[in-house]
Amino acid sequence: MDLKSKHAAPVLTDPVPVSKSRLGISSLLSYSSPGAAFPSGLYLTIPRKKPVPGKLDDVRAAGWLDAMKASSPPRKKLTKDFNIEITSEDNDVAYSSWMIKYPSALTSFENIMNYAKGKRIALFLDYDGTLSPIVDDPDRAFMSNAMRIAVRDAAEYFPTAIISGRSRDMVYEFVGLTELYYAGSHGMDIMGPVRDLACADDHPNCIRSTDKQGKEVNLFQPASEFLPMIDEVFRTLVENTKGIKGTKVENHKFCASVHYRNVDEKNWPAVAQCVHDVLKDYPRLRLTHGRKVLEVRPVIDWDKGKAVEFLLESLGLGNSEDVLPIYVGDDRTDEDAFKVLREGQRGYGILVSSVPKESNAFYSLRDPSEVMDFLKLLVEWKKSKKGKGAL
């Protein structure tokens, strides 16, 4: 899944190991200013090379176009007369075969709960494509009231966090539940209650603040020094892509997203080239791919997997063998969290997908409606355990 380029644009490499402090973040917090030397373990080494002449050759050689197509599977076609999906027999067979490796979390629920006996479940959820459907306009990716109730009920019984690529403020506005923990910008902006989120007051990247209800909270922002740079890149991307019909650029505080969902596929190379031309002047920023979106993020050893680890540690659940983290997500960026849970044999990743694709997840769900069913099953299971006197 890593994207490697021979050109001047930022590239993704294997993350540098982070030192094992209590929160696993000591090496991430040792810098204080933009001019400070980069400590090892925080930034990834990115060689600066001259770009290869020839416009679209840059993004083709870098593999951007292939990655854009790979991360943007086509939607299933609908009939004109009936709102019914037409799925070929071959596709059904392929998906059924794929589910042998990634079985449904619904049909496997009993197996999951057998493993959860005697353990405390911690729940982590992506937003887009997981709690809400993927839509053409990102500003209208609303979750249903039924889903909101399901998430609220789950949070009543389990520590629950939403980890999204959106800005923390935006995802909080969409969800509107005060019972949750929120991590925006792929985990680079984490908010939690002071009573739970362990965060030293003198920490350079952890600050005391208040939420929209005036409640005191802690904010952890390991990439805070990048804010001016992201703002600058966002404005440049807006200006440089305004001539490409259908392009939408969003500022998610610690990352900038360029959506091409509504761009004619023949113009995808132009979108990629615009982003490439901007990023080649910012060696401390990198590109990642999502569902029909190019995301510009700081070159820092931090992702959704690190956010899961941080939240677990902050809640006092990090090194406990009686904790079962469950992460539900649909996007490539969620793979970092799936990988953390799989490699450490700590919990389960659940991939939300209606098409076969390789993943570090253990289980699968087809779409947000199945996610809601899974959350309801979790709540029913917990209620039944409480009814029997088990905690």
Automatic annotation (TrEMBL):
Pathway: Glycan biosynthesis; trehalose biosynthesis. CDD domains: HAD_TPP. Its EC number is 3.1.3.12. It catalyses: alpha,alpha-trehalose 6-phosphate + H2O = alpha,alpha-trehalose + phosphate. Transmembrane segments: none annotated. Belongs to the trehalose phosphatase family. Removes the phosphate from trehalose 6-phosphate to produce free trehalose. This is Trehalose 6-phosphate phosphatase.
